[in-house]
Amino acid sequence: MITVSGSRWTRPVVALVLLVWLLWISHPAEIWHVAASATIPPLLVAVGLTLFDRALMAWRWLALLVPLPAAARPSLAKIMRIFFVSTFVGTFLPASVGGDVVRAYALSQERIPLALSAASVAMDRALGVMSILLVGVIALWAAPDAAPAGVTFTLWVGALACVALGIVVFSERIARMAGVLIARVPGMALRALAARLLDAVREYRYHHGALASVLAASVGVQVLRVVQAYFLGVSLGITSPLSAYFVAIPVILLIMLLPITFNGIGTSQAAFIWCFGAMGVGRPEAFALSVLFVALGIVGNLPGGLLYATGGRRQTA
Theoretical Cys-Cys bridge with 271: which of 159, 236, 252, 277, CB 3.0 to 4.6 Å? Predict the structure, then answer.
């Protein structure tokens, strides 16, 4: 009982302790002064851009259902509902992992095999991470002087992980090796599920065009997120150039994806202070920017809350 209770409260406690400590060292009074002086027009621009990134995110997931015959795919309306409801529910779960589970399960309720549902979500997530790394690596190449210490290593390690996933999808030899490892997984049901998931992911090797389109859309999403952060920074009076945001935001997004705290609370503040602090931005400004960035993501998830209240709850139950 103690173990269960402890595990239940670990993430909230970690998030709270980290957040309070960062708030303290960043001086709450100065943070409030920075936030209170924020200008409205750049904030409205950032909010408006969230409509475009959410639309692109929903479209790329629909495009990843290409292994299914067109007649077997859910309608765009159903896909949009599932996507927005799952992102809203994911707001209250660790990083994006919980939302991905909800999304895969809800899609499987539309007569889509669970393995393919999970594979579409996994590929969506993988291509999303790949696009973050791609934007970061290109920005690092274009503006190497804007990178804080440690960012280069982080981006290249992530890029190698994405290359490894691509090899699993497209290499027959590596796929056979993965199959051998799966055969050693304990438990018949778990082993069968892992094998079906591998087969479903491998189906994408026949759909190069769809993967390229989804990757391009994912890059567009990351560019929009960087520009959103830039306008939030402008509203707070931060004078860092746009190139600095293109280097820092991809790394921050990767840190926020780690399933450590809920919705990146605490870890996002630490990442903003680390990356922007290395570029000369004060802690109060970096902390305020991190809060606005997380809040902007929550605002983008609010349409899912409305859908959840009007019927999406049954799908995610």
Answer: 252
